[in-house]
Design goal:
Elements: E1 7-10, E2 13-16, H1 24-28, E3 68-71, E4 82-90, E5 93-101, E6 109-114, H2 125-133, E7 137-141, H3 144-147, H4 159-181, E8 186-192, H5 195-205, E9 211-215, E10 225-226, E11 229-230, H6 239-250, E12 265-270, H7 278-287, E13 292-297, H8 310-324, H9 328-339
Parallel strand pairs: 6-7, 6-8, 8-9, 9-12, 12-13
Antiparallel strand pairs: 1-2, 3-4, 4-5, 5-7, 10-11
Length: 340
């Protein structure tokens, strides 16, 4: 069974923002009905890490990017926005994704838009189009699990998940390099659902991003623990695997990095969310530094409360475009399909 994908209809187009297929059993309920797991696992956000190794996210800043682009045969809401496939080199190999350019071409504003799980860059086509219509060069990359063709098993509950979180953060830092190589000077990070956790780590280690907009996010491990017990696919694992995984993921959790962020953060969450629960979201909010704001919504269109409303999406885009100093009238025009 596949969980809700956060679809919103926008004039015949599908806005694909957030998914939780790895949490399919969680989305259907919160009872621990699969497997026999421990009842005394660590706190929902994982064990605290006394020493955080920020060097894990270091990379060769002078390494060649070897950027390649090709026109993408994709339909977008705005025909004058140019969409290209893109690839570039990172520490773990070639990164693939999409890049969108605004109608006027050159701009000094950019956005890194990261997809949910188990999506890939192409599922961010409409966010890219809206952001580029508003005047930003916007890039979306495929997560490491997507590049490894693990769309049905994005999480393995072993050291691979930690390694891929590190790889994701490094790949996102290289995306900053790509934008800077194109003359971009102001950058926003657009994170939804699963990619909020990686974005929180990025906020603590990457000083070149000017602000972070986080939609329906919370620490990843929280989604697999309810009342001290594992749920969903984590409940199918042995006690040793569960506790080893929690220890591993604690070293790459936004909870351990977001507090040192120097850029402003905009959190958006739903009060009825059963995946990124309000309690989990509030823990992440509390871990952030003082330069953050939180906005709650009561009108999620999905039964599990995880999907964003059209108003949340519009607010999400407006916050980023305000941060980047884009033209207000132009933003209004681009958002008109969402706000009618």
């Amino acid at each position: 069974m596949r969980a809700s994908s956060g679809y919103q209809r926008v004039r015949g187009h599908t806005w694909t923002l957030v998914t939780a297929a790895a949490l399919a059993t969680v989305a259907c309920g919160t009872d621990n009905e699969q497997g026999v797991g421990p009842t005394d696992v660590e706190s929902p956000s994982g064990p605290h890490v006394d020493v955080v190794d920020e060097s894990a996210f270091d990379y060769d800043e002078g390494g060649k990017l070897n950027v390649e682009e090709e026109p993408a045969d994709l339909t977008v809401p705005f025909p004058d926005v140019d969409i290209f496939t893109i690839s570039y080199d990172s520490a773990g190999g070639e990164v693939t994704g999409l890049i969108a350019y605004p109608p006027e071409g050159d701009t000094d504003a950019g956005v890194i838009a990261m997809h949910g799980m188990p999506e890939r860059a192409v599922d961010m086509i409409e966010p890219l189009a809206f952001l580029s219509c508003a005047g930003a060069t916007a890039i979306a990359i495929d997560a490491p699990y997507a590049r490894a063709d693990r769309m049905t098993t994005p999480l393995l509950f072993d050291e691979t998940d930690r390694d891929e979180m590190i790889q994701l953060v490094v790949d996102l830092r290289r995306a900053v390099d790509v934008l800077e190589s194109k003359g971009v000077k102001r950058i926003a990070y657009d994170g939804v659902s699963w990619s909020v956790d990686g974005g929180g780590v990025l906020a603590g280690v990457e000083p070149r991003i000017d602000g972070y907009a986080f939609m329906v996010g919370s620490p990843v491990v929280d989604r697999f623990i309810r009342n001290g017990s594992p749920i969903g696919p984590l409940a199918e694992q042995s006690e040793q695997v569960i506790n080893d995984w929690l220890d591993l993921m604690a070293t790459v959790s936004a909870m351990e990095f977001i507090g040192t962020a120097t850029a402003p953060i905009y959190f958006q969450n739903n009060t009825s969310d059963t995946i990124s629960t309000p309690e989990s979201a509030e823990r992440l909010h509390a871990a952030a530094g003082p330069d953050h704001e939180v906005q709650w919504y009561d009108d999620s269109p999905s039964a599990n409360g995880h999907d964003p409303s059209l108003q949340m999406i519009a607010d999400h885009i407006r916050w980023q475009t305000d941060l980047l100093g884009l033209d207000t009238d132009r933003v209004d025009t681009c958002l008109a399909p969402l706000e009618q």
